[in-house]
Write a structure and sequence with these properties.
The chain is an alpha+beta fold. It has helices spanning 10-30, 79-87, 111-148, 154-187; strands at residues 45-48, 51-54, 59-65, 68-73, 96-98, 101-105. Strand 3 (59-65) and strand 4 form a beta hairpin. The protein is elongated and about 70 Å long. Its main location: cytoplasm.
Length: 189
């Protein structure tokens, strides 16, 4: 009854779920935890030479001590623009200028701000879960369509649906673990 020509592209599903995880890691990296990290500046873009440019492409980003990030801006004319971009980024950091070096002292987070950040981390994780579930739905739809087209027996449909569900469960668990780790990191004083 069923052809053997149907094979669900689980590599594609994994790739798309990996994409959701990578996006979550990037969002988590931008969350301030009270410790200095060069990755916290990744989302900040500077208007350099008529186009928006990541900070790490206009200067050297360093973390000389646990509560300080420095940016050594290569072009003196961009120092003001880099400073402005950081002020307007919503990171809540007040840049201090020292020639072409911009120093970013990372203030201690208070309890209320930590709780807010854990909620934001939770929202990021929920977006990642939704993305993974959307990939799951696509996989399930492909197996249903193949079954309805007669390319898949009922047993094979159950097999592929189980594969998709196991993959989904694995990625949801990874997201939950990443969230737990990030929340512990944020709440750490």
């Amino acid at each position: 009854m069923a052809d053997e020509d149907f094979e669900l592209d689980t590599d594609d599903l994994k790739r798309r779920m990996d994409g959701a995880m990578a996006s979550l890691r990037t969002e988590f990296a931008s969350l301030r935890t009270g410790r200095a990290s060069a990755s916290m500046l990744e989302p900040v873009q500077v208007d350099a030479y008529g186009q928006m440019t990541p900070i790490n492409q206009v200067g050297t980003v360093n973390v000389p001590e646990p509560r300080m990030v420095t940016i050594n801006v290569w072009d003196k004319g961009l120092v003001g623009k880099v400073e402005k971009a950081i002020r307007e980024s919503g990171l809540g950091i007040n840049p201090q200028l020292n020639g072409t070096i911009i120093m970013l002292p990372i203030p201690e987070l208070n309890e209320e701000r930590r709780r807010e950040l854990t909620k934001v981390a939770g929202q990021y994780a929920e977006h990642a879960r939704v993305a993974v579930r959307n990939v799951r739905r696509d996989g399930m739809d492909q197996t249903k369509k193949a079954k309805n087209d007669g390319r898949l027996s009922e047993d094979d449909q159950k097999f592929w649906e189980t594969e998709v569900q196991e993959l989904t469960d694995k990625y949801i668990a990874l997201i939950d673990k990443a969230l737990e780790t990030k929340q512990e990191e944020i709440m750490q004083v």
